[in-house]
Amino acid sequence: MPSFLNNRITTIGTELKILSLEKTHPNGEMDIKTIGLGPIRILDFYKQAPNKFYPAGSVEDISFHNQEDPVLKHQITECLRQMYSILGIEKLYMNLPADYKIFDIAHHLGLSTEQEYELLQCETELARQNLVLTHLQKVMPVILETERLKERVRMNGHFKNIIPPNF
Predict the structure, then answer these.
(1) For 20-64, what is each residue's pLDDT tens digit?
(2) How far apart are CA 5 and CA 2, in angstroms?
(3) Cα 127–131–132 angle (5° rounding)?
(4) SS3 (DSSP) at 115
C-alpha cells in the first residue's frame, strides 16, 4: 500500500496482509482489516495495471536497523506514561510490552500524517526514537496546558458560594 500525501503517491509504502473483510458496502467498496508487515520502496507505479482494473507496481523491501538506545527508550516510555496518565488512557501504557519498537506505538502518539511518513522513512530505530522523543517533548507542554485549562473551565463559577476568610 503506497502512502498518499499532498495529492500524490509517495515512494515509501507498507506491505500489508489482509486479515479479514469487515463489511461490503452497496457501491462495492469494502472495509478490510489489515496488518502492516514492513516498509517497501515503490520502484514504479501504474494507475491501472495492464489488463486489470486496479493499480499495481514494482516494490522492494526496505531493511531496517532495529538497534535502539536504551536511554532514549526510557525517556520515551516515561513520556508515554505521563501523557497517557494525563489523558486518562493508562490502559495503553499498561499494555505496552517491554520490547516495543517505535512502529508499535506510532499510531498512539498524535503524529500528523506527514510525521508518520517521516517516521516510515527513518531506516534506524535510533532515528525513529529521536523523532518520537522530539515530538513528545513538543506536545507534552501543550497537553499539560490543555488539561490545566480544562480543569479551570470545570471550576468556573464554583467560587460564588465560598466565603472568603476573615483576617
Answers:
(1) 999 999 998 999 999 988 889 999 988 888 888 888 889 999 887
(2) 10
(3) 115
(4) helix
Identify the pLDDT of residue 134: 96
**In the structure, what pLDDT confidence band is assigned to residue 157 with cuts at 50, 70 and 90?**
low
Q: Which residues on neighbouring strands pair with residue 61, listed in sequence order?
A: 40
pTM of the shown model: 0.71
The residue type of 35 is I
Q: Which residues pair with 32 in a beta bridge?
A: 21
Which segments of 106-124 does DSSP mark as H helices, in order? Answer: 113-121
| Domain residue limits, the chain | 2-61, 70-155
Q: What is the CA radius of gyration of the chain?
A: 22
The amino acid present at 117, given as its one-letter code, is: Y
Pinpoint the alpha helices (H) of the chain: 70-87, 90-94, 102-105, 113-121, 125-155
